[in-house]
């Protein structure tokens, strides 16, 4: 597994947190979960007062990535004596309304994503006025501090894209299709921009509707049939990678597929050499650290990262990493 300096920094932070807290031991539109020890860990929880922490994301239903994020959050919640509340809405307005609902519930902390940041600014201002600390994860790192969040936990999307562009260039690719499955999501656009920055050939964006799997597959297939010079495909999420594999086969294309994000299916496709490599941003770590950060702040006034983003990736993984990854993806933690 090839890790960047930021990924190693994240690992060091986890070790520090483990010492600080004495490490012991699929969401729908709006779900509430009691703490449990699922997610590959265990042990006794802390004796600190019971807290209520809400996580509101821009995606989630039927997406294994967000299942893994929740798995990490639930594990931290079980350890930290936290009642964990999860909800999501793909529409920016709906996500903001869910954050307002969390404020109305007088939660002790809120975890949010900033995929469409401008829609979140006003409601995060209301959270600040209510004295509720916020941690952002996954997307919108450049907006996190501006909107009053304590920390941002995730990968730097442009840097991750640059790593992909460099790898594809080293493989001798000439023309790459970068598939954006959610228009207006700043993180996805940053990934493609990063690929374009370091790739020596041509990068073309293709917008598809990620909520429409047959339509997305057909769009990718049509593009491959129309342009035989495409020799690389960059999927920006694990579900799109699966669709790209099918589209490639149906189009009779020889393009190699790379993807952002990891799940059990991607690991199987790495093993089968249907996907060349994947970018792992460690979603389990994003969920775990976000809940732990809010618990640390509420119980000990700690702030991770000193106001700077805490990076959980990128790390490039290939078929060589499959034996190690299979165990963890099987239990839903990678």
Question: What can you see in these coordinates?
Answer:
By secondary structure, this protein is α/β, with parallel strands linked by helices. It folds into two domains: about 1-155 and about 280-315, 3-Layer(aba) Sandwich (Rossmann fold); about 155-280, Response regulator (Rossmann fold, 3-Layer(aba) Sandwich). It has twelve helices and 14 strands. Strands 1-14-12-11-10-8-9 form a seven-stranded mixed sheet. The protein has a seven-stranded mixed sheet with strand order 2-4-3-5-6-7-13, sandwiched between helices. Mean pLDDT is about 90; it is low at about 5-45.
Indicate the topology.
Blueprint: E1 2-3, H1 5-21, E2 30-33, E3 51-57, H2 64-80, E4 82-88, H3 92-104, E5 109-113, H4 121-129, E6 134-137, H5 141-144, E7 151-154, H6 157-170, E8 175-180, H7 186-198, E9 202-207, H8 213-226, E10 232-235, H9 238-251, E11 256-260, H10 264-271, E12 277-280, H11 283-300, E13 310-311, E14 315-317, H12 322-330
Parallel strand pairs: 3-4, 3-5, 5-6, 6-7, 7-13, 8-9, 8-10, 10-11, 11-12
Antiparallel strand pairs: 1-14, 2-4, 12-14
């Amino acid at each position: 597994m090839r890790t960047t300096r930021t990924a190693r920094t994240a690992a060091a932070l986890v070790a520090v947190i483990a010492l600080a807290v004495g490490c012991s031991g699929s969401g729908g539109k709006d779900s509430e979960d009691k703490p449990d020890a699922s997610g590959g860990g265990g042990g006794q929880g802390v004796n600190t007062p019971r807290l209520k922490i809400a996580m509101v994301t821009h995606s989630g239903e039927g997406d294994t990535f967000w299942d893994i994020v929740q798995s990490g959050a639930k594990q931290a919640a079980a350890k930290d004596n936290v009642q964990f509340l999860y909800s999501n809405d793909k529409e920016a307005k709906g996500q903001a309304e869910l954050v307002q609902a969390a404020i109305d519930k007088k939660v002790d902390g809120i975890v949010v994503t900033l995929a469409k940041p401008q829609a979140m600014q006003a409601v995060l201002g209301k959270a600040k006025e209510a004295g509720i600390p916020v941690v952002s994860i996954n997307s919108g790192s450049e907006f996190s501090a501006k909107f009053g969040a304590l920390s941002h936990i995730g990968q730097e999307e442009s840097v991750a894209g640059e790593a992909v562009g460099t790898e594809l260039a080293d493989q001798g690719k000439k023309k790459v299709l970068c598939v954006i499955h959610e228009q207006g999501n700043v993180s996805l656009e940053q990934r493609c921009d990063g690929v374009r920055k370091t790739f020596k050939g041509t990068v073309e964006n293709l917008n598809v509707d990620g909520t429409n799997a047959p339509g997305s597959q057909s769009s990718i297939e049509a593009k491959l049939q129309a342009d035989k010079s495409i020799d690389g495909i960059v999927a920006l999420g694990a579900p799109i990678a699966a669709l790209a594999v099918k589209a490639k086969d149906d189009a009779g294309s020889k393009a190699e597929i790379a993807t952002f994000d990891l799940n059990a299916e991607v690991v199987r496709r790495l093993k089968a050499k249907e996907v060349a490599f994947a970018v792992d941003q460690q979603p389990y770590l994003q969920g775990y650290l976000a809940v732990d950060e809010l618990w640390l702040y509420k119980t000990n006034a700690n702030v991770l990262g000193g106001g700077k983003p805490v990076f959980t990736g990128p790390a490039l993984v290939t078929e060589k990493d499959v034996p190690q990854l299979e165990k963890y993806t099987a239990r839903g933690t990678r």
